[in-house]
Amino acid sequence: MTQRTARTDLGLLIARIGLGVVMIAHGWQKYAQNGIEGTTAGFRQMGVPFAELAGPGVTALEIFGGAAIILGLLTPLVALANTATMIGAAVLVHGSNGFYAANGGYEFVGLLAVLSLGLAVAGAGRYSLDHLLVGRRRERVAAARTAPVPS
Q1: Around 93, how many Cα atoms within 13 Å sit in the side-chain half-sphere?
Q2: pTM of the predicted model, to two decimals?
């Protein structure tokens, strides 16, 4: 496999910022506009299982997970959690409304799920806390393994 290029890492940063901003905005709407109780009640009305856990859990994931995605912190884990959440939203809430978001369909949450899954698979890239905390160490270990052995 080839090493990542600076352009690839820039693309991952742009994707992380875009996804993170959308996540934070939707989480903040749930928290500040609807309130946790209102969000939980809305989830319950839509038939979301375990609404009492899902309401605050999804709100926290969107706010704190969105910030983590932007920073590139625990990116694969947070992105995978968001993928599962968006698939749940598509199936439980939007699926019966067809594809288009204008009709309440799964178009938007589907796009967020695919973007999240892509970040879960690709990782955060070099412009991230993940790389700063873990990636540089991995690169040093890999370089040490391939370094010529002195005779």
Answers
A1: 21
A2: 0.87
